[in-house]
Amino acid sequence: MKKPTRKRKCICDTVAILKKITGNPEPLSSTEINSIRLNLFTERNSDGTGYLVLRGKDIYEKYNRRICDSDVRAICLYLKHSPRIITKVDLSYNSITDTGFFKLLKNVLIKGRSSVTNLNIMNNNITELSILNLSKYAKFLKLKYLRINGNDFGTKGGEYFADLLSNNRSIECCDIGETGQTLTSVAHIITALRYDHAGNTTLRVFDFSRIIPLFNRYSYETKWLAYHIEYLLERNDTIVELHLQKNELIGHDVEYLVRGLRNNKTLLYLDVGYNKIGEYGAELFGQYLSEKPQLILLNLAGNGIRDTGARALSFGLPYSRIRALDLGHNKITDDGILYILNTIKKPFYMRFLNLWGNDIGETTCGVIQRMLISGALFQHTIDVRLYSVDGVLHAAYYPNPANRNKHLYYNEMDFGCEQPIYHIKRNVLPEKKIVKVDCKQRHKLDKTDKHRF
Fold first, then answer.
1. Mean of the pLDDT values across residues 250-279?
2. Nearest alpha carbon to residue 279 among 253, 237, 248, 310
3. pTM (2 d.p.)
4. Fewer CB within 10 Å, N- or C-terminus of the chain?
């Protein structure tokens, strides 16, 4: 019999041999953006589509630079020849100017076979020239989501943007906050959204926050902005979500807003957070909510509301359809919070309730604990979590998964706010027994579709 032959292992250093053949090439002098690297920044979806996410912070950490105009050509080629259908492009916090944006517009956004429907180009260096080019090609754009906030294109750019809204019939969600607008451009934009002027009929979500409207000769008066918003609410029947954060609105400006809300039948989400409406503004909103409006989500965070305003809100909440209420970062104490908590049990239960940032004492913590045990509140619907230290209840910040805040929207640091509860390990309360709730009735109350939130 023949002896079985043994396989011999190769003892040569293949890596060293290859280096002798190919040489030792020098590293690249600059980090070029190519299709291989762009593929690494593409998020895959289960339906075969993809999101190209090129945030400036992520790019800078890897390549010590940001996306600029010279990289737009490679991005356009990748979007055309990618095996995946790219539907979203995120270029926020980069250094793209009008030149690069025009290349992106001509080569991708207005093409007949373009699959990009979501564009985020916030906080770049585009000016009024880019908005003019957008308005020229408004009829050919297929974008549904457009975020251009943080680009200072000024009054003239605001007028061009009004032309874009008038001629485009695809954009559904738009954010033009912090773009250096004046009351002149605000008037043009509001007119472009009014149905009595044959305006836009497709826009559903509009973010008009931090617009910084200033006169050239006179100081900024918030009542004129509120006056234009009143006309927008009265003469628009498509917008369901409106953001007006950080516009320095005061209590008397809420009179205009409420007057417009009474004549509006479509708005479901109103965000007036981080203004200065105070007690009087909260009282006006309480009176409006007592009239059983269609409003479902209301954000009043950071408005300097005290116990009197919380009490006025509590009078109107039981009659409203409010399912999401944000009262965080106000000046409400235990008495005011208890007024709000006493209105929780109603046919339209709360999807989320934000209270963090107020003076939450032991009394409020005890009430919240009892409501969690009884099923009137659920832990995933509030932004505080209870823990005990030496037998005394305290509240800690608990990130609310249902909260529609803008923490991730603005790419903030992970530790730029209060730490969540998992950093507190001493005497954490155990999870309570889940209360059985009538599922059929709860599903009936919570039944929503694309037309109702």
1. 94
2. 310
3. 0.81
4. N
